[in-house]
Amino acid sequence: MPGKWGLHTFYSKDRKIRRLLPKTKVLSKASLRKLIKRYGSVYIKPNMEHMGKGIMKAVKTSKKYKLVRVNKGKHKFSNVQKLIRKVKKITRNKPYIIQKTIPLAHYRGRSYDIRVMMMRNKQDKWTYIGMLAKVMGPSSIISNIRRGGGYAITVGQALKKSVAPAARKRKKLKRKLIKTSYRICKRFNRYKYSSQIGIDYAVDKRGRLWLIEVNFDFPSHGLFARLPDKSIYRLIKRTRAKYLKAKGRR
Ligand SMILES: Nc1ncnc2c1ncn2[C@@H]1O[C@H](COP(=O)(O)OP(=O)(O)O)[C@@H](O)[C@H]1O
Ligand SMILES: [Mg+2]
């Protein structure tokens, strides 16, 4: 199966990347029942969609179950059967995945995650271009800025105000993000050829790193234009132009 599940199983085969993947299954009545019981909170995502479309979050509290849908409001249920029935009705027979909710670190009271941009240069070699933090919009469950209403800041700002007030720790986390991104791109060559990859990571409240998604083919460039400092955005455009020019000659 391609899509999110395909990428998940593909990256589970790498011993180092596997450690960064949150527990994930194909959505079924059984997996929903099991994961919500075990983790108390799960993300349910359409296997083939992007940009936050169709994502849901199910949460178990002491008395009830809640289901939050992106831009579609909330539902409450008195028991798990009712939650399952509703999810089944929404998802019909389309493939979805279900995943443990990562307790995302917060910046000024809002969850955020991290996008790392990797591109092939004119020598066709993967290179690290830049990173940013996507802060979620008010009461949103996704960090996709256009659909979720959030905003972008630098990773330094986000880490400083959350899990890494010390400069040394920030540096270490950023180094790990870059190193891991090279590994992800190298491995991706076996999946298919791509010339630009945007990788979504989460940092949890304890400062642990998780891999959320690998966006290939058309990762957003415009996202980086949202930072006040346009240097990464300009580097993206420059790198792309040089890559395409060199490719024309190859
Ligand atoms: N397991 C999770 N725990 C916490 N937040 C998540 C989880 N999965 C997704 N999210 C949030 O939802 C956003 C969209 O999920 P993602 O898997 O990237 O789907 P899409 O392809 O629609 O962008 C992520 O960027 C992140 O902010
Ligand atoms: Mg995404």
Describe this structure in words.
With 250 residues, this protein is an alpha+beta fold. The chain has 2 domains: 23-100, Alpha-Beta Complex (Cathepsin B, Chain A), CATH 3.90.70.20; 106-249, 2-Layer Sandwich (D-amino Acid Aminotransferase, Chain A, domain 1). 35% of the residues lie in helices and 28% in strands. It contains 8 helices and 12 strands. It has helices at 3-12, 15-18, 29-39, 80-91, 145-148, 155-160, 167-188, 231-249, and strands at residues 24-26, 41-46, 56-60, 65-69, 73-77, 96-100, 106-107, 110-120, 126-135, 151-153, 196-203, 209-216. The strands form 2 sheets. The chain has a 6-stranded antiparallel sheet with strand order 1-6-2-3-4-5, with helices on both faces. The longest helix is centred in the last third of the chain and has 22 residues, at 167-188. The model has no long low-confidence stretch (mean pLDDT 96). Bound molecules: adenosine-5'-diphosphate and magnesium ion. Magnesium ion binds next to loops.
